[in-house]
């Protein structure tokens, strides 16, 4: 509900219970043509019309969106801004925004969305664009040297330990939470995510989890894998990869390949893809921890579960099952240059693969792609007993806990600039605009409860079966009782980056075994923990797990 309408309703005597009851019982509300509930009905109808309108820009199957489309969507979604900001109110204000330029998404879209915001408010935004592989180093340098040179930052929740704990972020004003309708977030993205010491800092614009995307034409009776069903477990994924070696892709006529592991680092972000395999083996349903021991911060990355995950990858390397030069393929390559372009049977990735499959000019797999939660394992390692348990285990990887927009403490002492920064951030995190970013190529995936209205997606041009499959894989991951959630602790990407370095050595044959590779990662992690402070890390790690 828009802020202004909500305030009007409350002043008119509507209670929260009335509003909730009214929203849940549309037929009853429709009968009230006057008064608070009648206003609610008319507003809901207007909201639905706006959402339907923006989802037709440009329309599913009508080519990739352009800058003109981003600006049009941004203009149509300015209603909440206009309710809180007077025209020209921020004249003379300049803000610096640091974010990503991956695949010409992220910051490129933000520019378009915010152009009409700039025109209306009078503010000007300057941009710092970073490649994914450069992001962590640039942020850590700014933190270490005390040279934060940006007012707004696109950042993931794992970095909250590096920034909020050091007083680098500005606390979110209450009006912002109301404007963005923060209660609409899916459960796992609500506090404590986005908070530190009880204060809120984050406008969520993404709901990251990894899901399993696969080619339906690689499976079924008579398929080239010889498998009637899509694999549910990692050992079956490996078997399918080996089975198609030397065969022909049924869609492209080119060589067929199975699962696409990225073997090159990506500024720490590539470690998530080994985690996809490892979480199934390592995240025991009776244990919240899986990366470190919560009482000692001793790494679990070299326990039998992680070693099994590393061995799975090494087995496919040894079998020659990957495309040529896969050792130099990072996750951007596996998703956008390989899978969506018709190379490979399956991969794990964020939601971009789902929206891009049907709305990007570069995708050829839109008609044959399917989705599920990440594969599981037929055994799970119990770190408390130091023993394997022979039972099926699934643990979807909540990789990165989603991108958010944060405002830095650089603006805290200038109220006009502070309000401008939060207004820009709130525009990007608005409920209606977020639906568009979830449905079209943006770098973001569904993250609000309202994103799971299948009818809206179908009206936009997605076919029902596809969207139920895609959105269902996200919802099943978010709501999974054994989801693997990473800790929001200082230095998390230092751990991930060094893990990538050691994995690269292991995949290149510089270590003798998966165990030796894992031991090298664990030794490096111990050094990082000691550098940061073991006792403080233990405390923060336990807090992040809700212990």
Automatic annotation (TrEMBL):
Record keywords, A-Z: Periplasm
Record Pfam families:
SBP_bac_1
Concerning its family, UniProt says: Belongs to the bacterial solute-binding protein 1 family.
Give the location in the cell.
Answer: Periplasm
State the name under which the record lists this protein: Extracellular solute-binding protein
Cited SUPFAM superfamilies = Periplasmic binding protein-like II
Name the InterPro entries on file.
Bact_solute-bd_prot1 (IPR050490), SBP (IPR006059), TAT_signal (IPR006311)
What is the taxonomic lineage of the source species? Bacteria, Pseudomonadati, Pseudomonadota, Alphaproteobacteria, Hyphomicrobiales
**Which species does this protein come from?**
Mesorhizobium marinum
Q: Which PANTHER family match?
A: ARABINOSE-BINDING PROTEIN-RELATED (PTHR43649), DIACETYLCHITOBIOSE BINDING PROTEIN DASA (PTHR43649:SF12)
Lineage, top-rank taxon, reads Bacteria
């Amino acid at each position: 509900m828009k802020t202004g309408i909500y305030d009007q309703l409350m002043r008119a005597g509507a209670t929260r219970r009335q509003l909730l009851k009214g929203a849940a019982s549309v037929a009853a509300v429709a009968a009230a043509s006057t008064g608070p509930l009648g206003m609610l009905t008319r507003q809901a109808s207007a909201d639905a019309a706006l959402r339907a309108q923006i989802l037709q820009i440009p329309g599913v199957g009508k080519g990739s969106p352009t800058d003109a489309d981003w600006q049009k969507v941004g203009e149509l979604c300015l209603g909440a801004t206009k309710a809180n900001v007077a025209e020209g109110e921020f004249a003379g204000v300049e803000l610096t925004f640091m974010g990503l330029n991956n695949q010409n998404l992220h910051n490129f879209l933000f520019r378009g969305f915010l152009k009409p915001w700039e025109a209306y408010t009078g503010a000007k935004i300057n941009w710092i664009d970073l490649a994914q592989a450069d992001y962590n180093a640039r942020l850590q340098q700014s933190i270490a040297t005390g040279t934060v040179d940006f007012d707004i930052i696109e950042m993931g929740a794992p970095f909250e330990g590096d920034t909020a704990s050091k007083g680098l972020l500005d606390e979110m004003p209450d009006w912002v939470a109301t404007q963005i309708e923060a209660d609409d977030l899916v459960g796992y993205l609500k506090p404590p995510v986005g908070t530190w010491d009880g204060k809120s800092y984050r406008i969520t614009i993404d709901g990251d989890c990894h899901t399993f995307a696969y080619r339906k034409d690689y499976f079924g009776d008579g398929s080239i894998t010889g498998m009637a069903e899509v694999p549910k477990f990692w050992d079956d994924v490996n078997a399918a990869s080996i089975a198609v070696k030397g065969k022909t892709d049924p869609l492209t006529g080119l060589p067929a390949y199975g699962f696409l592991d990225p073997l090159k680092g990506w500024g720490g972000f590539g470690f998530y893809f080994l985690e996809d395999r490892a979480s199934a083996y390592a995240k025991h349903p009776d244990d919240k921890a899986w990366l470190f021991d919560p009482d000692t911060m001793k790494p679990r990355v070299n326990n039998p579960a992680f070693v099994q995950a590393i061995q799975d990858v090494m087995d496919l390397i040894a079998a020659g099952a990957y495309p040529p030069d896969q050792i130099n393929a990072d996750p951007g390559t596996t998703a956008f240059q390989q899978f969506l372009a018709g190379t490979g049977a399956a991969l794990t990735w964020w939601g971009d693969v789902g929206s891009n499959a049907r709305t990007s000019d570069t995708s050829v797999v839109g008609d044959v792609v399917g989705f599920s939660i990440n594969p599981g394992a037929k055994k799970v390692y119990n770190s408390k007993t130091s023993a394997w348990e022979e039972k099926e285990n699934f643990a979807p990887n909540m990789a990165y806990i989603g991108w958010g927009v944060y405002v830095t403490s650089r603006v805290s002492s200038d109220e006009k600039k502070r309000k401008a920064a939060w207004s820009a951030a709130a525009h990007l995190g608005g409920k209606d605009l977020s639906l568009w970013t979830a449905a079209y190529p943006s770098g973001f995936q569904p993250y609000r409860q309202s994103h799971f209205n299948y009818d809206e997606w179908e009206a936009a041009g997605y076919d029902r079966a596809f969207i139920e499959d895609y959105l269902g894989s996200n919802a099943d991951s978010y709501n999974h009782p054994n989801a693997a959630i990473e800790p929001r602790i200082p230095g998390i990407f230092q751990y991930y980056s060094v893990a990538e370095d050691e994995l690269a050595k292991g995949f290149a044959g510089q270590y003798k075994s998966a165990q030796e590779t894992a031991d090298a990662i664990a030794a490096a992690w111990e050094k990082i923990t000691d550098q940061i402070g073991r006792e403080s890390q233990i405390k923060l790690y336990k807090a992040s797990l809700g212990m």
